[in-house]
Amino acid sequence: MKEIVAVLRMNKVQHTRDALAEKGHYAMTVKNVLGRGKQKGLQYELEGDSGPQFTESPRIHYIPKRLLMLLVTDDHVEEVVETIIKANQTGNIGDGKIFICPVEDAIRVRTKETGDRAIL
Amino acid sequence: MKMIRAIIRPERAEVVASSLAAAGFPALTRMDVYGRGKQKGISFDAIKYEELPKSMLMIVVEDENVSKVTSIIQVSALTGYYGDGKILITPVDTAYTIRTGEEGL
Prior knowledge:
The structure holds two protein chains of two kinds.
Chain A: E1 2-8, H1 13-22, E2 29-36, E3 42-48, E4 51-60, E5 63-72, H2 77-88, E6 97-102, H3 116-119
Antiparallel strand pairs in A: 1-5, 1-6, 2-5, 3-4
Chain B: E1 2-8, H1 13-22, E2 28-35, E3 42-44, E4 47-49, E5 52-61, H2 66-76, E6 85-91, E7 94-97
Antiparallel strand pairs in B: 1-5, 1-6, 2-5, 3-4
Helix pairs in contact in B: 1-2
């Protein structure tokens, strides 16, 4: 069992959700988060005497993002990752990251089922 | 690869983020959470605060940088009082960059 944690653009969640539903993955958690990548947020480009310049100080430190979390069985990891990449790829900086974390066990509260049966 | 999740005081979040950026770890995800520790929140006489606002920072780093990042968080989030928070480290198998579709951070 794996947990897939993906940081996505705000406006891509609906599209991702539809694409995952098409493959039969309906269960997920989406959360509003703030974040930044190795670009350290958004920089403004200022027109100076010597052409456009990137400045250090006026910058947006955190960009609003959506955090998508879903649990899948080991054999579906590849499929879900491919679907998320396909739905979110624009080719520009800020498309996000996907992390795959191992999960030892899961329990369905209603029926007390454990393991893979709890998430299917 | 490891995921480091630090639950810290909201007012220290910016200090932690900037000292991490200065050490070469600018990438992080921040979320506002509510929680409590083993002190069960705070109570002032009859008034109880069961859940306190905290900030959770989520950082994914390579294995060799884990101790570096945790020590930076420990130093810059420290006030010495109850409620400074916790740092949780969990394994991450793989990471993908969506823009390129490649593996790795």
